[in-house]
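Teaching note: in complex prediction, the entire set of molecules is handled at once rather than each chain in isolation. The prompt given to students was simply: 'Predict the structure of this complex.' The entities are:
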Amino acid sequence: MLVVDDERGLVDALRRGLTAEGFAVDVAYDGAAGLGLATDRDYDAIVLDVMLPRRNGYDVVTDLRAAGVTTPVLLLSAKDGEHDVADGLDVGADDYLTKPFSFVVLVARIRALLRRPPQVRPAVLAVGDLVLDPAARTVARAGEPVELTGRELALLEYLMRHADRVVGKVELRDHVWDGPGEDGNVVEVYVGYLRRKLGREAIATVRGAGYRVAG
Amino acid sequence: MLVVDDERGLVDALRRGLTAEGFAVDVAYDGAAGLGLATDRDYDAIVLDVMLPRRNGYDVVTDLRAAGVTTPVLLLSAKDGEHDVADGLDVGADDYLTKPFSFVVLVARIRALLRRPPQVRPAVLAVGDLVLDPAARTVARAGEPVELTGRELALLEYLMRHADRVVGKVELRDHVWDGPGEDGNVVEVYVGYLRRKLGREAIATVRGAGYRVAG
DNA sequence: ACCGGGGCTGAGGCGGCGCTGAGAACGCCG
DNA sequence: CGGCGTTCTCAGCGCCGCCTCAGCCCCGGT
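The expected output is the structure of the full assembly:
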């Protein structure tokens, strides 16, 4: 794994500790060097400080995700304001730990990250010319921003998360609405709403089976 | 998603807040009920308190993982000892948040969990220059996409699953249509439809025996 | 070459799926 | 309390996909 931090003492302690835990550790002491290594080599996980010389941690994560690198990233920071944490996660980091932290907890969180299926998704969903940002709750079609209501957004997000697959109406009811509930044609109505705002071709109907958004 | 906690006030606040964020929320007030729901239904994520009546959070996660349920779990607890956190993560939870917590951070962490890919898609059927994707319900001939109706697709799928073999009409009636049913020439009609869309050579006739699609 | 039967195809009816417009319930804000 | 936006129900309807039927074609056997 890769550890990026500018406090030499901390880095040394982490390297020794993580090595003892059985990890192979590379280190970098600033953002640019860390970004270079992370892009170059294929790590299993990255521990990344936020306050860094030459590109801060947020920038590094943003650039990594933009470059298609999906390696799990654990951010490390002294800043524990709720928006610091939320911003860090929303740019594409997978976990956030505030200094000072317990080494035991760090290792447990790293193990949790490594358990996850290898491919981690980018922070923003993109399918065809549709772009949806779950954190900002915004949607754009072919670069043009589109205003959606909450339910419309939830429906579109689920469809995009399962793009290139037919999604049944019952499945949509279960995940986008509450429980297996009543009958009715809510799903069809909301697909109609989305089509009016996004264009008819955005969502394909598969008669007798459900709907599909394709790349 | 599913929220499991025994403090009614907190649960209500979470349900309202998460619903406003566009999630569909189920709730349970004790461990056994939560485990039941989580096993039964297919949630996108679970928020789970550790201190619960009737099975604590650790037990619930352990049982879920043992049952093969891989839904992401975020543990919630007032206990912030380093070993509490590490234990929670090590039994299979994906994240751990200590009370009191910021709602903004909770939502950001949930979104980070949801970035996990939903599940791996098994495979597509390929015979000759025909490609059929059962999940997407799409068919392509020589790279060109072809639109098929439900019955046409079911018929083609059965033929492709038994490629390089002669498949009798009665067998097709039994498997693609319901029961041994009536007489008539449905099969021949639908083979005709397929040939019109895929090209005459796609399906060969074996006079007196049935049909065959070959590699 | 003739004839029988299995296979193909065009036309058509029917049932129901899915789309739409209108409007009722609800919460939020001023 | 009244307006607005969002969510959801309901009923109507168009059209698509499913299947039947009848006639023709073509293959194969004698």
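Point out the following to students. DSSP finds eight helices and eleven strands in chain B. Residues 149-152, 184-186, 189-190, 207 of chain B lie near DNA strand D (CB under 10 Å from a C1').
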